[in-house]
Amino acid sequence: IFASGVDDSLRAIVVRETGPEELHYAGLMHTRVEMAKTMSRDLRLFVPLGFALVLLVLGSAFRMFKAVTVPAMTIGIAIVWTFGLMGMFDIPISLVMTMVPPLMMAIACSLILHVISTNLQMSAEGTAPERTLRRAYASLGGPLLIAGLTTAIGFASLMSSPVPNIRKVGLFATIGVVIIVFLMFTFVPAAYTIFPLRPRRIGGATPFTGFLQHVVRFNLRHRRVMLAAALAVTALSVVGVTRIRVDTDFLTSFKEGSPVRVAAGVIEENLAGVNTFYVIAEGEQSDAMREARVLGALSDLQDYMEARPEIDKASSMINMVKLFHQAIHEDNPDSFVVSPVQETLDEEIFLTIDCEEPAVRARYVVEDFSSMAIFARAKSMTTGELAAVIDDIERRGNELLPDDVRVEATGTSVIFAKSVSAIIRGQRDSLLLAFALIFVLIAILFRSIPLGLLAMLPNFVPVLFVLGLMGWLDIPLSLGTSVVATIALGIGVDDTIHFFLHYRRHIQQGHTRELAVAKTLEQAGAPFILTSLSLTLGFMVLCFSNFGMLIGVGLLTSLAMVACLASDLFFTSALLLNFGTKPKE
Q1: Contacts by 19-23 with C-beta closer than 8 Å and gap 24+?
Q2: How far apart are alpha carbons 219 and 184 in whole angstroms?
Q3: Measured between alpha carbons, how far is 349 from 355 in angstroms, rounded to an integer?
Q4: For the segment 89-100, what is each residue's pLDDT rounded down to a tens digit?
Q5: Given Cys at both, which of 165, 230, 268, 496 links 94, Cβ 3.0 to 4.6 Å?
């Protein structure tokens, strides 16, 4: 609140003083305040737009008022409960947290689509509405629960990340999914008991019937081609993964051309970089920063920093001491140095630093002179590049300084730069954990380890495809995009479970592999397409964000949902046609 007030005051001054010349306002505080304001605007956009897209999908699919209002009420309740818990526990909304509402809408819509579709199919048989609903949940309850659990596991695996904001997304996305599943088994059946669903006509083809028939014929003819295509996509994706770079810079979160990025670019080009950090020298004893050997070494370090092309300016109390030393030596340029004579240096520190007001002195050095700071302004660069610069400065500082003085960089930019390895480690750990837990759950569901492994393959390929796409399109791995693969896995596995359950049911009825796959696509293909469409549109909402990072998340996750649908329609079919359980088994 304080930073926002200061920022508003500075902005008002800039607006008031702007004349024929251009005035630009930038800096870390301004960037963070703008992020907070932009997040608020995004949330006000995401929720109504997400609702509109959900209503559009459901309305277009079923053309029934009750097929739209009940899901909308379910989504509204889930979002209010989830964000109400955040308010109760005083959890602030971060940039990556703004993706939670569209995510919840998409998941709720995809789950309830199966409920409505199954209910309408069974209603066509002419049974009483209440009995139809019980039959629908008897058939669908298990898959719904498993789908909810796998999605929740996918998000819960994010809580293993070392990055706090990603852990919070994992926690509240998991809570949101649990609330949605709870409402699916309580509110939704209660609502459809009071307002039963009745099909407009008995039987008839769906808009996807012709397309699905073509898919069946294609799969039967080209089952081995599909396996080869999946292998080729996997190979290309692996190459793409090796090209992924990491970037968590605040400025790159904004879209190109945004006022924040333009101002930062102008100031950096004409003055100095707006990317700031500190290098702290900390001694073991008081007055360590008064010693000639220490200040001389720190002066060399400061010169080394300014000599780097990535750093525009470095300053500290050393500048004041060197300037005073030059002044008493008739402004000789060669005298702009730290005096190697301790007695002279003590006098110069006394006449410059000690005579300053305490508040001014505190900007440079602590009260007992045990540690001091070098302030640096760096050019805009990726956090990976900044991390390399910081590592080099810390290494050089520890080489120059005595063993009893330690050098370490700090500041918001440094924290984000050093989070690069944490993001990579978090991405790896959360994905491995999600794969392991979901595999165990599916293996228990089907009581078969080979079948569990087979069910994971159609979800492994889309996840790898998304990661490879990030490398090929040069989309950086950031706080937001680092969760895309886990989201794709947690959500994408739902339709695979439905596919395997339908396939197993038909195999148990004595059908051949070919007929079981054909009937599965005939019965569940339309819900697969509708759920994927709802998920894709739900995540496309993020593309309307003012943050480039969230646009990348929306685009990648939407592509992941399309990839998951293609994997289920073609790759899963090919796997079951070649390796699926046979009727005699």
Answers
A1: 22/266
A2: 34
A3: 9
A4: 888 877 778 888
A5: 165
